[in-house]
Amino acid sequence: GCGERMGVPTPKQFCLVLERPLISYALQALESVHWIEDVVVAVTRENTEAMEAIIQRYQHKRVSLVESGVTRHRSIFNGLRALAEDGPDTKLSKPEVVIIHDAVRPFVEEDVLLKVVIAAKEHGAAGAIRPLVSTVISPSADGCLDHSLERARYKASEMPQAFLFDVIYKAYQQCSDYDLDFGTECLQLALQYCQTKAKLVEGSPDLWKVTYKRDLYAAEAVIKERISQQICIVKDVKEDGEHVGLLEEMLKNEFKHADVTSKALGPAAGDLPRVTLERCCSFVCVNVMNSDFHETQKLLKLLEDSHLSIFYPLVVISVHFLAYNSVSFGEKMEDLRQIRELAKEVKKRNILLYGLLICYPQEELKLQQRVGQGAAIIAALIKERNPSLAGQLLVA
Amino acid sequence: GCGERMGVPTPKQFCLVLERPLISYALQALESVHWIEDVVVAVTRENTEAMEAIIQRYQHKRVSLVESGVTRHRSIFNGLRALAEDGPDTKLSKPEVVIIHDAVRPFVEEDVLLKVVIAAKEHGAAGAIRPLVSTVISPSADGCLDHSLERARYKASEMPQAFLFDVIYKAYQQCSDYDLDFGTECLQLALQYCQTKAKLVEGSPDLWKVTYKRDLYAAEAVIKERISQQICIVKDVKEDGEHVGLLEEMLKNEFKHADVTSKALGPAAGDLPRVTLERCCSFVCVNVMNSDFHETQKLLKLLEDSHLSIFYPLVVISVHFLAYNSVSFGEKMEDLRQIRELAKEVKKRNILLYGLLICYPQEELKLQQRVGQGAAIIAALIKERNPSLAGQLLVA
Ligand SMILES: [Mg+2]
Ligand SMILES: [Mg+2]
C-alpha cells in the first residue's frame, strides 16, 4: 500500500481550471489508482476549511489532512509522521511505500506511479526526471556567469517520487534544520541520510509543475483536449436517414484523433451504455423530424446519473434540421427558442447545452458544405466548452 | 546597432498560433524595436521557401536569411559570419553588438533587449536568466541519483543574449568542433575563448521557450489575452441612450483589466483615431434604432486600413436590440440574418464578425440582467476569437 502527500499549499493549487481547483485534478488522478490506499494532504490552517470543502464537493475519497509546515520539507515530514504514528484516533497506518507528489502536477498517471513504486521497492527510492529545457548556469556573487553545466549530463527532477517508508522517514528524522528549511530535494535526503541512491525514471512531459499563469492556461487546454477525446452521437431509433450519416462522417473528419461513436436511444434501444456515461463528456443529440427537445431531454435525464459532471462540464449539442421547403427560418428559431430555459436549468448540474440548426439548401451540392459547417461549429463548441454561450442557438 | 539571429529552425517555429507561424511573432517583436538594424534568421535549405513566404505575408522588415548549420552553435556561427563579411553583395554590415535569440520565444520585449544590450556593452556579454523551476540532478551511469544541485545557487539560462560582436565572433572562430557540435551555451563560449564573464540579467517569465504542445496552448492563450486588452465600443453619434451606457458599464465590468473606450462614428465625428486602428483588435458596434448593418459596415471599411489584421484576427461584434413591444423575435432574426454573408466576406481579411441580439424584457429589473448577459457573451467572443463561430447571431 502507498500513502501519498502533497507539497506545500500555495494559492496556485486552489486556482480554478474549468471552474475546479487544480488540487482536485491531482486528487482525482491519485484516487483513480486503486492500489493507493491513503492520500495525505498537507494544508495550512487557514486553508483547511477550503480544502475540506473541495474534498466534499468533488467527493474525494481516502484523503486525510495534516497541517503543513513552513517549508516544503517540513510539510512532507508532517505527512510522513501522520502515516507513521498508528494511533487509535487515525485511520492511517504505516505503508511499505510512500509516494510524494505535488498538488500542482495534475496529470500524473498510473503508469508512472507504478514505475516509481516498483523502482522504490527495489532501490529504496525513485523519482521521475525530465530532460532540461534550458541550460543551467552558476552565477558568481557579482551577478556574472561563473560556469555553465553541460546540459546533457543533468536532468530536471520532477514528481512523483516514491520511497520505502522506512527509508524516507528515517532520512527526515535524521536530517538537519538547515535541510528542512532550505532543501528542496527528497531524493537528496534519502541519499545523504540513508545512503539510498534513488532510481531515476523518465517521466512524460505532462508531469510538469504548474507554476506560472501560462501553465494554468496550458493545463486548461490539456484538460479540454482530454475530455474532447470521446464524442457520442445520440439519435432516436426511428431516425437514421442520410442526414445523420452525413453529419457523423463530417464529425469524424473534424475530430480526427477522437473516438466518435453513435448510439440509438429509445424504449427499444435502452439507455446509454454505462461505459459511455462514465467516460464521455461530449454529446451530440440529432433530431431530424421534430422541433422539440424530447430526445435531448431524455439524454439530459440520463446524464443526471453521470458522476462525470462533478468533475467536468459536459457538453450537449441538440442538432435540428430545417429543410428549404418547410417552415421559415424565423418560425423555426421561435420554435427552438425554449432551449434557452432548458440550458439554464441543466447548467446548474454542470451541463452546457447548445442548439444547432442546420439549414438544408435546395441544391444537393451545397448540402455537404452546410453539414460540414455544422460539424465545425459542433467541434468548436466541444473544444471551447464556453459556459457563456450555453443556451445559444447556432445556425449552419 | 544590433544584428540578430534565430536558433536552429525546427518545425516548432513554424507551428501556427492563431493561424500565424510562431516565428512571425518573434520577428514582429524584434522589428518593433527601432534600434535593431538587421535580423538574421538561420533556416534550413528545405525551409527557406516557407520562411520567405512568411516574411512576405507578414511584411517583416530588416530580415536576412542564412543557411542554418547542423547544430544550434553552427547556425549561430553562420549568422555571425553573414554579419561579419561586408561584401558588396550584402546589405548587412558588422554591428557593435549582436543579440542572439530563439524563434520559439515569441514574447521578448524591448525592455529586456535593452538591458542585455547595455550590459553587453559594459561586460562584453550578457544573457537573460530565470530561477529554476525544478531541482537539477546529476544521474550516475546506472540511471541512479549521483547528486542534486542546490536549487538556489543555479539559474536557468534563457534568451535573449547580447554580445560585443568581436567577442562572440572570436569565440566562435576559436572554439573546437566538439563545442560546435555538442555545446548549447553561447555565454560559455565567450567565457572560455575570450575570458568574458557574461552579465546575467533577470528576465520575465514570458521569455520561456515554446517546447512542448502545452507551450503552444499557453502561447495562444497569452496572445489572445494580450489582444483583448483594448476594447473599442463604436456607436453612431445619434445614439447615446441608456442602452449604450448600460452596455458600456457592463462591459467594463467584464473586462476589469482591459481598456474599454467608446467612440462615436459618423460624418460629424469623423473616423476612428489612428491609435485605435493601430492597437485595438476588438470592436463592439452598437445599433439601437435599426436592424441593418450600415454602422457595422462603416466600421469594417475603416478596419480595412488597419494593418493589425495582418498579424491578428480582429473581432467585431454587431450588437442589436429588440424591444418586447416591437417586431417578433423570429422576424428580427430574419432581418439580421444577412450578417452571415457579411461575416463570410470579411473573414477573408482576418476579421471575425459576430452578431448579438439583446432582447429587452418588459420589466425594468430584468434589463440589467439581459444586458449583463450580453456583455458576458461579448467577452466570451472576444476572448475566444473562434473563427468557426463567425457569422453567428447570438441572443441575450
Ligand atoms: Mg498513522
Ligand atoms: Mg555582412
Automatic annotation (TrEMBL), chains A, B:
- Role summary: Cytidylyltransferase required for protein O-linked mannosylation. Catalyzes the formation of CDP-ribitol nucleotide sugar from D-ribitol 5-phosphate. CDP-ribitol is a substrate of FKTN during the biosynthesis of the phosphorylated O-mannosyl trisaccharide (N-acetylgalactosamine-beta-3-N-acetylglucosamine-beta-4-(phosphate-6-)mannose), a carbohydrate structure present in alpha-dystroglycan (DAG1), which is required for binding laminin G-like domain-containing extracellular proteins with high affinity.
Taken from the record, one Pfam family name reads ISPD_C
According to the entry, every stretch annotated as the D-ribitol-5-phosphate cytidylyltransferase C-terminal domain falls at 229-374
Q: Which organism is it from?
A: Echinops telfairi
Q: What is its EC number?
A: 2.7.7.40
Name of encoding gene: CRPPA
Official protein name in the record: D-ribitol-5-phosphate cytidylyltransferase
Keyword field contains Nucleotidyltransferase: yes
Subcellular localization, per the record? Cytoplasm, Cytosol
Where is it mainly found?
cytoplasm
- Highest taxon of the source? Eukaryota
Catalysed reaction equations from the record: D-ribose 5-phosphate + CTP + H(+) = CDP-D-ribose + diphosphate; D-ribulose 5-phosphate + CTP + H(+) = CDP-D-ribulose + diphosphate; D-ribitol 5-phosphate + CTP + H(+) = CDP-L-ribitol + diphosphate
Its Gene Ontology molecular function terms? nucleotidyltransferase activity
User: Keyword set for this entry?
Assistant: Cytoplasm, Nucleotidyltransferase, Transferase
Q: Which Gene3D superfamilies match?
A: Spore Coat Polysaccharide Biosynthesis Protein SpsA, Chain A
Family from the record: Belongs to the IspD/TarI cytidylyltransferase family. IspD subfamily.
Subunit details for this protein?
Homodimer.
Q: Which pathway does it operate in?
A: Protein modification; protein glycosylation
